[in-house]
Amino acid sequence: MLANQALVTFAVNCVGTNLVTFMAVVMRLDNADAANRANNWAGTTYVFSIAGALISDSYWGRYKACTIFQIIFLAGLVELSIASHLFLQRSCDFRHGEAGRQAQHCRPPTKAESLVFYISIYQIALGNGAYQPAATTFGADQFDETDAAGERKSKSAFFGYFFVANNLGGVLAVTALAYMEDKGEWVLAFWISTAAALAGVVLFALGTLRYRHFLPNGNAIVSVCQVIVAATKNRHVKTPQQAEDLYEDGDHGDGDEHDEEDAKIKKNKMLLHTPDFRCLDKAAVVVATTPTGHRRRPWSLCTVTQVEELKCILRLAPIWVCSILYSTAYSQMSSVFIEQAQAMDASLWGLTIPAAGMGVFEILGVTAFVFIYSFCIARIVSKVASREPTELERMGVGLVISTLAMITAGVVEQQRLKHATTTTTTRQAAASLSSLTILWQIPQYVLIGASEVFMYVTMTEFFNDQLPEGLRSLGSAMSVASMSAGNFASSLLVTVVMAITCKGGQAAAGCWIPQDLNQGHVDRFFFVIAALNAMDLLAYVVFARRYRPVPLIKPAGADETS
């Protein structure tokens, strides 16, 4: 599965890392519009993760979901490769191997060509976005949580190694393939990514007989809606003081044969009653009109476990909301960071470093800090504090590091502006460069990578652990949905900033993100994100201190595997 993840990540990064450049050059969009559309595509990719999680948990099961969504992803790459081959040959002329981002060599696309392009990339978004949460949870399913001394520790390590594979798969995509795309070899790069996705599907299929397979656990959305409806119906009913008086599967001796919903609930770990969100307990109150000896009405009476599942989601909601601004900072790596790099000196030892290629330092940062944390930080803290850092503490550290990354990016932009030149380049018809080397971006990329280890990797593990068995894929999807919301928030922030600072158009004085970045103030944009992250950190500390974990009961003799 780790090799499969590396190949899939390689394939999607080939599309995603240079998408903002493709849109600016081939699709002929301005900087702000290209950044927004790239962020919206990434955000939509993450939105599809929620659908993928619900489908895998409720209907198909995780193995089937992984297989089908990988095929959709592969089909989207094939469509993009074919469309790019036909489109680029007709619309662009990359003379003498010059940089593919030479806008003067591409004519504006027609509406039909644009439609084909957007259909293909959003099919890729569907396939990859829906696949990721199912794959993460399916990988975690391969470890037996009951073996506390063995496989549970291996499961925790799996999340770290999964993200190492996830990032190592992107190394070639942001180096060799990004360099190819930078030279105009978009079609070849897309076909290579298609071949990688095909190899990933084959590798995944080869492990079919060795995987642990789990049955779907019922419709999580329907279960949540049932609790809300039942609690609303019983809003005038007095909630019992004793939790034992609330309904749970098989309670009250009503002679009820367990219906399909109860059977699926019983299969999972049942949840103990908790005292918060008492209004939701009304959904599990057995009222006088409830018939005995009959199948219960799921929209009028829910089990304690169903109620507690919704409570689990509500408890995690503040933590999830606080992660959105982190994701806003993270999303700059695939948009404004690249535009910043395009206005810097990219030459090194006679070679030209592709702007998207700087993402390799984020990947190296992730890989390095996964091992630094596991073998250094965790052990040192364990000796000093007699315990390892909690997941919530690690996520807080991630927020601090992301704030530092944005401050660093702002300082780098200030230095870039000090070294700005007025020499017109072949990259954009009227753009200017800076003599500042692109290597100045290394610290901000490394810091983003370090923050990802502490925030995003830990958040996935945290949500996966804090939700019951039937909602595990939803836990993975919540992490990815945070990235989605962050990308959309970034687009909104760019739009607001442009509306406020560019009232006279992108050529207006004071415009923060103009077509010519040497005339703008991208540094202020980065500092605004840093300030928002700092305020977000304060709110996160409050919510994290109030959070309490969820108690579980595992039914005796329950067999979770199919």
Automatic annotation (TrEMBL):
SUPFAM superfamilies membership: MFS general substrate transporter
UniProt keywords, alphabetically: Membrane, Transmembrane, Transmembrane helix
Source domain of life: Eukaryota
Entry keyword annotation includes Hydrolase: no
GO CC aspect terms: membrane
Transmembrane segments: 6-26, 38-56, 68-88, 158-180, 186-206, 313-333, 353-375, 480-500, 525-544
Pfam family name, one: PTR2
Compartments in which it is found: Membrane
Record's keyword annotation contains Transmembrane helix: yes
Recorded topology in the membrane: Multi-pass membrane protein
Predominant location category: membrane
Stretches for region Disordered: 240-260
Molecular function in Gene Ontology: transmembrane transporter activity
Biased amino acid composition, Basic and acidic residues: 249-260
Family under the similarity heading: Belongs to the major facilitator superfamily. Proton-dependent oligopeptide transporter (POT/PTR) (TC 2.A.17) family.
This protein's name: Uncharacterized protein
Source species: Panicum virgatum (Blackwell switchgrass)
